[in-house]
Amino acid sequence: MSRVSIIGLGWLGEPLSHALIQQGYTVKGSATSPEKVDKLNQKGVEAYELRLGPQPEGLHYEKLLDTDILFINIPPRTRVMPESFHPEQIKHIKEMAIQAKIPWVIFVSSTSVYPDNAQIAKESDVIHDEGGGNNAIIKAESILLAGFPPYDLTIIRFGGLLGLDRIPGKYFSGKENVIGDSPVNYIHQEDAVRLVAWVIEQKIKNEILNGVAPLHPKRRDIYEKNANDLGFSPPLSYTTAGNSWKEISADKILDTGFEFKFPNPLNFSYRLR
After folding, report:
1. Helix/strand/coil (H, E, C) string of the chain?
2. Which of 13, 16, 179, 268 has the fewest CB atoms within 10 Å, counting from its CB?
3. What is the pLDDT of residue 80?
4. CA 167/CA 186 separation, integer angstroms
5. Longest CA–CA separation in the chain, Å
6. pLDDT confidence band for 189 (50 / 70 / 90)
7. Could you state, in order of their start, the residue ranges of all structural domains in the chain?
8. Band of the pLDDT at 78, cuts 50, 70, 90?
9. Per-residue pLDDT reduced to its tens digit, 110-140
C-alpha cells in the first residue's frame, strides 16, 4: 500500500503529506479553495479542490479516491455548525470510499469523545451518545464503524494538537479564572505526523488509538512556562476544574513501539509569529 490520499491538507495534513512523500509514498490530498490547491501543487503535493457542505463539491476530487489509504482529517466545526453536520460529511466520504473500493480508511477523531468526569480514559472505554463526550465526533466514528464496512479502519483520537505557532499559554494570556489544576492531553504536531506515519508503516489496522503525549502536567504549569519562555503575560488568575477533567492514556500506542519525540508537553517547541 503505497498510495495515500489525505482529505484535509491543513495544519496536520500538509506536513503529513511532506513526511510521507519523503518516505516514498505517493501522496495526494484536498484543500477547500483553488488558491490553496495551487500553493500545495507548487510545494510538490498533488492537490485537488474538495469542499464538504456536507455533500462533496469541487474540481476533480474523484481522483483522490484512486488510492490504497484514505486519511480523513476534517475539523468538525461544532462551534459554528449543527451537531449533524460533521456526521453527514463523514457519511458522504464513507459512501465514496465504499464505491471506490478503498481498502484502508484512517480517521482523525478526537479525545473529546471521552467525557470530563475525573477519569483516566482508554480506548477500551465504552463511548456512547449523551455520555458527556462530543456527540458529533462520536456519531462520525459510529458511521465509519457501522455495517461491517468493506474496508479496514483505524481511528486515531488526537488530543490537543499543539506546537509551532499553536501555544496553549498564549490563548489564556491575561485572562482571569482560567482552569489551572487539570491535566493536559496534548500532542506536538511533529509527533502527530510521526504517529500517523508509524500507523501506516506498521499497518496498524482495525484499531482505535489515542494520540496524546504520555505525560500530563497541569495546565497552570504549561501556561506559566509558555509565558516565561516566550515573553507574554500569564493568566491573571486561576480556578479549579473540580471533577470536570480527564487524563487520556497513551499506553496503547506506546505498546506498539512508537516513541514520542516530545513526551512531556512542558518541553514542546514553539515559535512566535
Report:
1. CCEEEEECCCCCHHHHHHHHHHCCCEEEEEECCHHHHHHHHHCCCEEEECEECCCEECCCHHHHHCCCEEEECCCCCCCCCCCCHHHHHHHHHHHHHHHHCCCEEEEEEEHHHCCCCCEEECCCCCCCCCCCCCHHHHHHHHHHHCCCCCCEEEEEEECEEEEECECHHHHCCCCCCEECCCECCEEEHHHHHHHHHHHHHHCCCCEEEEECCCCCCEHHHHHHHHHHHHCCCCCCCEECCCCCCEEECCHHHHHCCCCCCCCCHHHCCECCC
2. 179
3. 79
4. 11
5. 54
6. very high
7. 3-164+185-214+244-261
8. confident
9. 999 999 999 999 999 988 877 778 999 999 9
Q: Tell which residue, 54, 63, 59, has the closest CA to residue 86.
A: 54
Q: Give the model's confidence band at 1: pLDDT under 50 very low, under 70 low, under 90 confident, else very high.
A: low
